[in-house]
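Final report, Chapter 2: Outcomes

The project's central promise was a pipeline that accepts a single protein chain and returns its three-dimensional structure in a standardized token representation, suitable for archiving and comparison. That pipeline is now operational. To close this chapter, we reproduce one record exactly as it appears in the project archive, with the input sequence first and the structure output second.
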Amino acid sequence: MTISTGRCVVLILNSIFWVALVLLSLLLFIHHDKELDIPISWMKSLELPFGISMIVLVVLFFTGLAGLLVVVMGEKFQKIFIAIFSSMLILLTCLLTTLSYMEYSHHEEIRGEYLMQFDESIKNYNSSRSTINNSTNDDWSNDGSIYNAEDVDRIQSIMKCCGSQNYTDFEESPWGKKHTDMAPESCCNVDLMQKNNMTCRALNWKEESELIYARGCHDIVDAAFVHWLDTLIVIQCFLVICTVIALFGSSIWIRLNRQTRSQTDYEPLLDED
């Protein structure tokens, strides 16, 4: 009965590890595709945490696999897989604790670097697409920043904002120098343009400011990035708690199994007496 209960506990914890593997993968690679599409591997302040995160994902996979083998394997191999499972849990606990501490203690540094990089992407905006003078060139120029022009346009369109602080931020960009007093097509207020039966295009911010998103993207992007980073830290901290519980549970299970085997070994001797 004790072994059966122990297997159920390991199975539940094992399920948590598999779910955590999926969640962390989503947060690191997929979560912001339609919004920020955060290029975390390009950020210097996240280089080490990102590397550790890759190791955590691998260890999570093998921890889940070891836990599954503990549940399904017979008594002959169970002891070996319990030892492997416990060792993986210790490694996972150390990695997750280190990772969470690094991200939490450098929270403002990570946030500051991301926002600085975003502002630089606005300053270096160099879209070769233009709807000015009926030009329809759909190619994009890579400006070398954390976000290229296409990324900036996507963020502005989805989040309904323009520039970093406002639409005048493009004035000093390579694109802005070619198109004086203009805001990119992605800055046009789609709802207002549709009400006026107009098609989105690059707009003159001196003469058509009412048709441009008035709010800058800086605060919106800041909130979205901080939400992503905080969510990542919370999930990692939750996993640390789970691994500690799993370590405690596996140690109790090992002790109970040893006691059960000890009693079984001594029973024949007691019968002979």
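Archive annotation: The chain has two domains: 2-34+41-111+224-272, 116-217.
This record, like all others produced under the grant, will remain available to the consortium after the project formally closes.
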